[in-house]
Write a structure and sequence with these properties.
4 strands; about 290 residues; globular; alpha+beta; about 5% strand; four-stranded mixed β-sheet
Length: about 290
């Protein structure tokens, strides 16, 4: 899922751990990721590149000041864009673009499938389990993430209340977590991920927004509102939120997520206009109109 993002007044470059990762991948390489540090859809792609140890070049793009080389590759000017070498030997003499973050992530997982070089695949080998993962990737992309933007873009003038936005977002999280619980073996200690012990693209798809949840606490009255341990009100919700905390703690501690993250202060600045509902990003405009995210 690409995002055209308003970067006016924003810091132009990565900072913190993400700056170190960008510097380590600044050298010329046939496979190029064009991205913006602020964009969660870009972070999805960067996480997969990191997880699978795929050699690449990272190129920071300001979508409002696009380089001619980038526009020649992708006239729509969307990030993330992956420039894929398609010439003989894949030396980069000819490249074709891929965009849409979920599509790019699946491409990378399939194209770099030698486990001795790139580690385990990020989707199951079993056809049913692979399809089930795609169903829940769809839930994240078309339910949970739109709920995040509806929540953070809430203002008092909206025709829905902050409580409704909070309940809507929490409901999409609970639906995902209940799927995790339903697929755990009774009496067996499960791993933290959607697939238990196995990290997968389902986890990757939600990870950037998990890292950004602190922004709702920062900007929105009443914050995220997820109940603390022992405060959920009933046994079923206690189990759901305990399982959520297990996943959340694991995902925000995972090295690939930390290494693709700039300093928190940068995101606070970047999301101020989302919180005020004044940003003109394509995602924000779609959210205002109640349309599918671009």
């Amino acid at each position: 899922m690409p995002a055209k993002v308003d970067t006016t007044e924003l810091p132009a470059r990565t900072t913190g751990a993400a700056a170190q990762l960008a510097a380590a991948h600044a050298a010329e390489h046939p496979l190029k990721l064009y991205g913006g540090w602020f964009c969660p859809f870009v972070q999805r792609t960067w996480i997969v590149l990191h997880e699978k140890r795929i050699p690449h070049q990272y190129i920071e793009i300001n979508p409002y000041n696009k380089e001619p080389e980038f526009l020649a590759l992708n006239p729509r000017g969307l990030v993330p864009t992956l420039a894929v070498p398609v010439d003989d030997g894949k030396r980069g003499k000819k490249r074709r673009p891929l965009y849409e973050s979920a599509v790019i992530c699946e491409y990378l997982n399939e194209a770099y499938d030698d486990e001795s070089k790139y580690g385990p695949g990020l989707l199951p080998k079993d056809a049913y389990e692979r399809a089930r993962c795609r169903l829940w990737i769809d839930h994240i992309s078309n339910k949970t993430i739109p709920g995040f933007y509806r929540f953070i873009q809430h203002t008092p003038e909206k025709d829905y209340s902050i409580e409704e936005a909070r309940a809507n977002f929490q409901g999409h999280i609970k639906t995902l977590v209940k799927e995790m619980l339903d697929n755990e073996s009774e009496g067996e200690e499960s791993g933290p991920w959607f697939l238990g012990q196995t990290f997968s693209l389902v986890d990757v798809m939600l990870a950037p927004w998990a890292k950004r949840l602190f922004l709702i606490d920062y900007y929105k009255p009443g914050g995220l509102g997820i109940p603390a341990e022992g405060k959920a009100g009933n046994d079923e919700d206690e189990k759901v939120w305990a399982r959520w905390r297990k996943w959340f703690d694991a995902i925000t501690s995972r090295q690939s997520i930390k290494d693709t993250w700039s300093d928190d202060e940068q995101y606070i600045a970047a999301y101020r206009r989302y919180a005020e509902d004044t940003t003109q990003s394509e995602v924000a405009k779609a959210t205002r109109k109640g349309e599918k995210l671009p």
